[in-house]
Every structure is written in structure tokens, then in C-alpha cells.
Amino acid sequence: MSRAVEKRRREFAAVRWCARTALADLGVGPVPILPGERGAPVWPEGLVGSMTHCDGYRAAAVARVRDGVLAIGVDAEPHAPLPDGVLEVTALPAERLRIADMGRLEPEVNWDRLLFSMKECVYKAWFPLTRRWLGFEQADITIEYEGTFSARLLTTDPAVPADGFTGRWLVEEGLIVTALAVTTAQS
Predict the structure, then answer these.
(1) 3-class DSSP state for residue 32?
(2) Cβ of 179: how many Cβ atoms within 10 Å?
(3) How far does the signal peptide extend, from start to end residue (predicted)?
(4) Domain residue ranges of the chain, discontinuous segments joined by +
């Protein structure tokens, strides 16, 4: 157990180092990035961001609200199939059909894990805007082969400027990475 706790502590520190580096790129001095409600990072006033980590990968993205960015979602996952039973509780029936079709055309991609990562990415953008939970069943994801995806939100909130989000995805070097930005242009 102590080894797992130490590993988690190192991941926590490493992903926050990524965030401080990204903040420095915006000219923001060193600041603590503490976990807030539901573990979401608390960003300095006027900034938004997202962090992610998985085995062997850590990343953070930040932006200024004054530049028209309202929220960011970033997620990374190992490029491996989901454990048994996870897809059934995280994907809508239509999503499962779509990724089954995609899997027949490009079987080298773990479409189930990619879909899961997209759902996580959407949640990471949704929660800072609304301070509300977004269940897996409340976003319908459509994946495009060329590296984009769209998420149709099946719930609404006045803080969200659109009825869906669009993002990008990449599968490379054993990793899945998904990202999206919610902007004022989506209003």
C-alpha cells in the first residue's frame, strides 16, 4: 500500500509540475495548484486548465479566459482494452454500435478505451463550468477516423455555451490522448 501511495504522490507532483510549466509559458509565476471540489484543480483567477496522468505520461493545458477559452478537458489513457464490464456501464448503446463498426475497419485501435477517454475529457471541461456531475450516459460521443470527436450533451446548463463539444484525439506510442477547449466562439 505504501508503494502505491508513494507512486500516487509522485504522479500528483509531476502533473502539477506540468501545470506550473504551462502557467509559466503564460507569464504566471509559481502558484500552488490545489485539488478543489471533486478533485478538480483550482486555477488562478482568470485562467482555466486541465491535467491528466496515466502510467508513463503526465500533461497539463492552461489558457486565459480573456482569450476566449472557458474550459479545457484533457485526458490520457493507456492504449489497451477496457477491463471487462466497463464499456457496458460507460457507453450508450448507439456508441457501442459505432465503435464496433469502427473496430471492424481499424481493429488496431482500442475504440472502447478511446471512447472512455473522450467521456473523461468531456467531464473535465463540463465540471468547471457547471460544478455539476455529468454522467457517462449524459454525453453521446461520435468519433471520426481523422482524429476528431464530437460530444452531444444530453443535458443542459446555462453555464455551457453550446449543446456539445468538439475535440481531438491521438493514439500513439501506447497512449490515447484526448483534448478539447470550450470557447466563447461556441456561444
Answers:
(1) coil
(2) 22
(3) none
(4) 2-47+60-67, 73-186
- Kindly report, residue by residue over 75-96, the tens digit of the pLDDT: 999 999 999 999 999 999 999 9
Could you tell me the three cell numbers for 84? 471487462
Task: Answer yes or no: are the C-beta atoms of 98 and 142 closer than 8 Å.
Answer: yes
From CA 178, how far away is CA 76, in angstroms rounded? Answer: 6
| Residue ranges at the known binding site | 8, 16, 52-53, 75-77, 120, 124, 134
* Residue found under cell 456539445: 164
Question: Does CATH place domain 73-186 in 3.90.470.20?
Answer: yes
Cβ within 8 Å of residue 135, ≥6 positions away: none
- Would you list which residues are annotated within the binding site for CoA? 8, 16, 52-53, 75, 120, 124, 134
The binding site for Mg(2+) consists of 75-77
Mean residue pLDDT across the chain: 95
